[in-house]
Amino acid sequence: MLGRRRTQSERDAATVEMVFAAVTGALLAAAGFIAVISPVLAGAVHGAGRKGCFAGAVVLAAALFCGRVAITLRRFERLGRLRGADPHGPAAAPPGQTPSDPSITADPVHASGSAASSRRGDGPSPDQPSQPGRTSPDS
């Protein structure tokens, strides 16, 4: 993404992904902390073991938080680079042209003749439910 200005929607997506990473990381860290510290809270650990459990819980919580944030943001960056390399996807062709490989289409639903006929009003396509408001069984 060097040399290219990001659009507002790209900046918004990055912000949402960062907040998602932080929130899920915090929840995972809290769950790990509680899991390790629960014997202390139950009164099963006394003396020096309490300090050890507390220290272990803090270390585990920090590791879980950092790991979750790193994995989430790395995945987002990788997907962003894949989208940024070819914004229309690998199967898209310029208007008026077909893709070089006929088995690859940008929109598989509209690639079949029956879907095209449903746009003309000839009837529902087999991919769509027959009654409005109903979902197809495989959705």
From TrEMBL:
Keyword Transmembrane: yes
Superkingdom, natural source: Bacteria
Segments of this protein annotated with the region Disordered: 82-139
Membrane spanning stretches: 20-42, 54-73
Biased composition annotated in UniProt, kind: Polar residues: 128-139
Keyword set, alphabetical order: Membrane, Transmembrane, Transmembrane helix
InterPro entries the record matches: DUF6332
Pfam families tied to this protein: DUF6332
Protein name from the UniProt record: Uncharacterized protein
